[in-house]
Amino acid sequence: MKRLGHVLHISSSRRIILKAQALPRIGDEVIDENLKRVGTVFDIFGSVTSPYLAVRSERKELQCLVGSVLYAVPSSSRRKEKGKYGR
Length: 87
Description:
Blueprint: E1 2-10, E2 15-19, E3 29-31, E4 37-46, E5 51-57, E6 69-73
Antiparallel strand pairs: 1-2, 1-6, 2-5, 3-4, 3-6, 4-5
């Protein structure tokens, strides 16, 4: 489990925006301090030295998340890419 960072605000498109402390992969599951699912990592943007994350939320009430810390759970179902002929 990786600590992603503090929630800065909620965008007009209902994405949760936070300042990244660790870089997850797009599609990783995002949880809160109570280990409840919040959503998935949707986008990583900003400068390389100071990136931000956008999380696609699954919750209806989002304003209660502002200021809280979110965490990423890496997906364990990543499959290995095979070559053209399955080698």
